[in-house]
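Lecture notes, unit on binding sites. The following record was shown on slide 14. It pairs a sequence with FE3-S4 cluster.
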Amino acid sequence: MKAMVDQETCIGCGLCCDTCDAVFRMNDDGKAEAYQTVNSEDEPTVQSAIDNCPVSAICWDESAD
Ligand code: F3S
């Protein structure tokens, strides 16, 4: 599974990086990006980041393997 961060929507609050730093990191634009594919172990944590992002900028990338 992969997660995606909408760069237009992210306000750079950093919560997702704090929640799951194995998948999310801040980029040079001060926005979050999903830099790793999500293994099954991390799925609940990523789901929590998706649910808690204040602007709902994160989603699962359904097109990814
Ligand atoms: Fe951005 Fe939401 Fe993460 S605002 S930094 S994608 S929690």
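Take-home: Residues 1 and 43 are 8 Å apart (CA to CA).
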